[in-house]
Give the backbone structure.
Amino acid sequence: MDIIILSIAIIYMIFLYIIGYWSYKRSLKAPNFILEYFTASRELGGLVLALTTATAYLSAGSFIGGPGVAYRLGFGWVLLAMTQLPTMWLVLGVIGKKIAIVARKIKAVTLIDILRERYDNSKLVTAIGSLSILIFMIAAMTAQAIGGATLYEALTGLSYEIGLTLFFLTVIIYTTIGGYRAVAYTDLLQGAIMIIGSAFIVIFPIVSAGGLENIARKLSETNVGYVTPYGVGGGLNPSWVASFFVLVGIGVIALPYVSVKALTYKNTKALHDAIIIGTITSALMLLFMHLAGVLAAYYLPGLPRGDLAIPQLAIKTIPSVIAGLVLAAALSAILTTVDSQLILATSAIIKDLYLNYVGPSASERSTKILSFITTLIIGILTLVFSYRPPDLLVWLNLYAIGGLESAFLVPLTLGLFWRRGNRYGAITSMIAGLASYITLYRLYGPNMYNLHPVVYSILISLITYLIVSLLTPRPSEKVIQKFF
Amino acid sequence: MSIGDPRYKIARNEAIVLLILFVAYILWWYAFAYGLGSRNPSEYSYILGFPDWFFYSCVLSIIVFSAILFIIVKYYFKEVPLD
């Protein structure tokens, strides 16, 4: 495509490398490497915390896939997207403060550290937890990479493979050398691009159509479903749509690459600011992007795939420099999710598995080298998978979000707020939640009797946790003292 | 029985308040979307270009709930030392 857009893409990547290098220099001065590499020494302020949390959560799904469905179904799907308004206040506000206090007491670096400590050093909780994180993160990153490469192809005109390699190597390198600090600060920059880009992609098309009402009325003449909450075809059932308050609302508390952010902020003022900033910025981005999907239905009816709606709308209705910014925003949505997932996958291997089981007394130097190598290898492995995604990963990705929620939501939140919960409850509820989610989703798909299957599997996990905990001994006094 | 860390009680109460706000938002969102939105679409009016049900459910709600959230966090949430 055009040279201007290509240069924007290059400048943008150079900035990411600079932040990666700056973070690396900072890490040399940090007193504790593990704490620096996985939590930026718990130094994040409110704005950085807000944007790294919001952008880790918002992904290709919010910037490409979701708007693509809104393109087909209209305002009813934007309504569904707005079940995510409370998501940031739930993730940061409900568990954020307690987790941060606990983390400092027990020197936790990962959520698995917290679960392990809470459940009396249960090896099984650690193993199930860290392995499911690792497996689901690789699957989720592969899916994001594929989305990113398709977009890069549209953005620069380079081939799928070249686009994929260029943009994915960028994330791998800045995350490898800069660790979590690079993740957080590149997220800040990219979050700003996402906010601006998502505003432009609604402003330009609305202004050139002479106002939103023109667009809405014209669409309702084509098909009245575009303007109803039931969507084109009338298939958006209210209770099914509302069940997304679980999948993309309260359930997000249990997505480790999002909620781990609560271990990384510096003081409660930062948390308080982030609750407000994160909620407002993510709500606006979600509203804008999904609304843009509806606008694309007006401008570009009959696209072969919904995924093309956002890139095509940008190219067709926005001057090319600004269109480049919009596409960079979508790419940023992907990179900011992948970097958080990548550093989390490394922490699962290094902190949760290696340091616990293999080398508890490993030296700082060898841990450091091993951390770099691990991030690099997971990143490159994901890149290789993305050229020709193995069926298993595609299959696993279907279950990644709901599966992690079904496994972690109950043991994490009840572990923090219910003192009677114990390790037996935790282990059984994790297995029951994950197994029931995969089974129900396979049997029913995303709609099981007008609710998303994640609602049932979290309920099963909850009942299992309560019953098994009450039937088995209380957690030790040591645990109670740390956690309550 | 341990005495308990007073900061945990603060964290728990704040969590409860935000869960109540979550439920309030669900009710608001649902009532406007399916209450207003179930009328015959020819009766919809348009506010700032949005179908009326959508405006109340998904646009006005951002302003209203951000404002409530702001007030809760500024006046109810307590700053505590983390260490």
Summary: Residues 61 and 67 of chain B are 10 Å apart (CA to CA). The mean pLDDT of chain B is 95. Chain B is about 65% helix and 5% strand. Residues 6-37 of chain B form the longest helix (32 residues).
